[in-house]
Structures are given as C-alpha cells and as structure tokens.
Design brief:
The complex is a heterodimer of chains A (106) and B (199). Chain A is mostly helical and 106 residues long. Chain A contains three helices and no strands. In chain B, α1 packs antiparallel against α2 and α2 runs antiparallel to α3. The model of chain B has no long low-confidence stretch (mean pLDDT 86). The longest helix of chain B has 26 residues. Chain B folds into two domains: 81 residues, Four Helix Bundle (Hemerythrin (Met), subunit A); 60 residues, no CATH class. The chains are: A mainly alpha (106), B mainly alpha (199). At the A-B interface, α1, α2 and α3 of A face α1, α2, α3, α4 and α5 of B.
C-alpha cells in the first residue's frame, strides 16, 4: 500500500473529533445508556489512533493492532458490567436519569 | 491492499464523514433507539477504516465484538429500561452545556494542533507486513503478549460472573417463616423499588 496516499494526520484528526464528541456526550447526557454509548465512542477513537500509528510508524511489528485487540476485549467486559449496573440501578430507582443517581453526593 | 489512490481517498472521506455525522447523531438525537442504531453504523465505518489500514483481522474483530455483541447488548438494555419519562428540569443547564462545549472544543483544537504540528517518523512502506498481519498478531499473542492474553480470559470470566450477579433479581424458593414454596410471580409484583423517595 502506498502510504503517501492518505496522510497519517487524517486518521489522527478523525479520531480526535470522535474522542471529543464522546467526551461531550459523556458530560451532557441525561440518559445513562447514552453515557455508556459515549464511552464506547471514546474507546473506538483510541483504537483508531492505535491502529493508525501501528500501520504508519510500526508497520512491520504491528504491536498497535495487538493493543487494540486487548482494548476491544476490555471494552466488551466493560459494556457487560456497565449495562448490568444500569439494570440494577433502574430496578432500584425506576429511572435512567443520571441526575437522580445521587446517593453518594454530599 | 492494492487499490488505487483515488479510491482510497474517496473511501476515507466517506467513512470519516459517516463516523463524524453518526457520532454526532449518537450524542444529539432525542430517541435513544436511533442513537443505538447509529452507533452500529459508526462501529461499521471504523471497521472500514481498519480495512484501509491493512488490518483485516482487527476489522473482523471490531465487527464481531462491537456490532455483534456490544451494540446488541445496548439495544437489549434500551428495551429493558425504555420508559418514557419527563426529565426533571435542572438548574444551570445552559451554563453547564456552555462550559462543557467550551472544554470539548478547546481539547479538540489542542489535539488537532498536536496532530498537525508534530512530524511523525513514518516507517518505510516497503517493509510493511501488509496482508500477513493476522499471522503476526497470532505470533504476538502467543509469545510476548501471552500473559495479557491469558489475563484477558480471566477478565472476561470475571466480567461475565459480575454481570450475572449484578443483574439478577434475588428470588426465594421457600417462605422464610412457613417453609412453604412461594409463588415467584407474587414476589415479582410485590417487589417494590427500594430507593424511590416516598413523599
């Protein structure tokens, strides 16, 4: 593949934008499911960064790809536990509004 | 992968556009079911970018794990907790929005500045492993990354057990005082949520 074709910066900028959209969603969502979706967006942005660097800078020993496989594994575990916590919260509070989960707030 | 440069550029532009518009839709749309389906689209487009980066194995893993598992899990969670509710009005909502948007735009400009100003040392494209990347990932996973690979299996087992323990409802098979078997449906109906404010 001719690597002069798409610059590395293109991938980096796309992943930066994706990460910032994820942070915005994390800070502004009232719905707890949407917060989990924003976390998944941020994990995808990080993965895209790792893959771009592994393909352009370390294209023989692609360690970034191995890292992104581990990130995908941890993301799957995180999503399962996160949604289970969400179900448990919903059972006790009958809402998914983030503002009502304030048991630990002073 | 040997496709023409123009095709690569068109693919990259279309996939990036789908990713950014889809991600904006995920965080901005009112209906959360649309958000979940758009999230699936974003995951598929990220897998497409991985294919452009010569990583067919990770692209397949992305489609299988993210679209096939996580997205379906999110859809099930939406089905289980989907209740139309009017959100209570919040104090300082607009100023909170303003502050968080400012922070995000500042962070974005910082990241883009770093991306554009730093000169990365690009490796020689002729040394690229190309289509052999799956073999190389397998070699990594069973030699220098063997310990994280094994720990990941323990992590997945722990996450599975933890999710079951967290999500299951406590049921009693026998009445504590009389010892008679109990009607589970009655327990389900009488099981009041614990932490609702009673006023």
């Amino acid at each position: 593949m001719n690597f002069e074709s798409i610059p590395l910066q293109g991938f980096l900028i796309v992943s930066s934008i994706l990460f910032c959209i994820g942070i915005w969603g994390l800070l502004n969502s009232r719905n707890a499911v949407r917060v989990l979706m924003s976390i998944e967006l941020m994990l995808n942005a990080v993965n895209l960064n790792l893959m771009a660097f592994s393909s352009y800078v370390d294209n023989n020993l692609i360690q970034g790809q191995v890292f992104s496989i581990f990130v995908i594994t941890v993301a799957a575990a995180e999503a399962a536990v996160g949604l289970a916590i969400l179900l448990s919260l919903y059972r006790n509070r009958v809402t998914v509004d983030m503002e009502s989960f304030n048991l630990l707030k002073w | 992968m040997s496709i023409a440069v123009t095709t690569q550029f068109i693919c990259f532009a279309v996939l990036s556009l789908v990713i950014i518009v889809g991600a904006l839709g995920v965080v901005l749309l009112e209906n959360i079911v649309y958000s979940a389906f758009l999230l699936g689209g974003v995951f598929m487009s990220v897998a497409g970018l991985y294919l452009l980066l010569n990583a067919s194995f990770v692209a397949a893993a992305q489609v299988l794990v993210y679209v096939g598992a996580i997205n379906v899990l999110i859809l099930f969670a939406i089905m289980l907790v989907n209740k139309k509710e009017d959100l209570k009005p919040m104090k300082y909502l607009n100023s909170r929005r303003l502050i968080s948007t400012t922070i995000c735009i500042t962070l974005l400009s910082l990241l883009i500045r770093v991306d554009l100003s730093k000169v990365w040392k690009i490796a020689n494209p002729n040394l690229s492993i190309g289509e052999e990347s799956t073999v190389r990932i397998g070699e990594h996973l069973f030699s220098d990354y063997l310990l994280p690979f094994e720990v990941a299996s323990v992590l997945l087992l722990m996450a599975m057990i933890g999710a079951i323990v967290l999500a299951r409802r406590d049921v009693l098979t026998k009445d504590i005082s009389t010892g008679l078997p109990v009607d589970q449906e009655l327990i389900e109906k009488s099981d009041k949520p614990l932490l609702i404010k009673k006023n």
